Amino acid sequence: MVQTSIPITGILRAHKAWLEKSADGRRADLGGLTLNDHDFTGALLSRAVLTGATLLDASFSGADLSGASLERGDFERANFAGADLTACDLSGANFSGAWFNNACLAETSIREACFRRAKLLRAQLQGATIADTSFRECAAKAMNGQQSRMFSVDWSESDLSQAQFYGSRMQACRFLGVLAEGANFGATKLDHCDFARAQFQDARFQRAELVQCSFRDARLANADLRDAKLRGGNFAHAVLDGARFGGALLAMTDLRGASLRGAREMTPEQLSQALTDHRTILPNGSHGPYMRNSRAERVR
User: Fold this and answer.
1) Which of 33, 131, 218, 226 has its CA 20 to 30 A from that of 182?
2) Collapsing DSSP states into helix, strand and coil, what is residue 239?
3) Which listed CATH number (3.30.70.2750, 2.160.20.80, 2.60.40.10, 2.120.10.10) goes with 1-127?
4) Which residues of the chain have pLDDT under 70?
5) In the chain, which residue ranges form alpha helices assigned H by DSSP?
């Protein structure tokens, strides 16, 4: 059993001196320790070592953890609200049920971690690199993940309303059933991602590149898809009522059973390149399949 009655105050004091390059300083190393429920509110832990530590229900609210090592730690239900975790390594760590509201996780490295049911309201994840990680059932409204890189990340059933992913790159990610009204995926590259049953009303996909992505049964009413490249996407049974398609490429996009009622800026070329059938509702309210010169692309 690891001894937990250690002089934390002295360790933090010595760490501050170490950061200031004082001869009396010593880097804080809490690696492998068990410090459940400990209060680190507002603590200076920049570049500290917490590798493999167990800190269930601990509080790091407002703490400076920039550049710290948190790999393989167990931080279940810990409070990181307003904390600075810039450029941290969070790989292999457990943050299930943790609080990151208004926290900064910019440029973090996250691999094979778990954030299931974490709270990420207005959290900053700009430039983060994330792989093989679960964010299922997260509350991440207004989260900022611009310019991030994600591979095999699972956001299913999360609340991503008003979230920002502008300029990000995502491959093999899952967004099943997410609530993402007003989310911004502008200029993103989405490769083989699954958005089935997602709620994307008023979401923005301007200039996005979507390669073999699935939006089956998703709702994208009034979404902005202008200048997007929808390469081989599956929008079967999706609701795209009132969506904007100016300049979008729809080659081999599956719109069978989709509703395009009131969809704007569609052209005969776009609809001719896509796959439609008798269940497709065209922009003018008529049923498909789309026939060239039918003028069904015109909103009534």
Assistant:
1) 131
2) strand
3) 2.160.20.80
4) 1-5
5) 8-19, 268-273
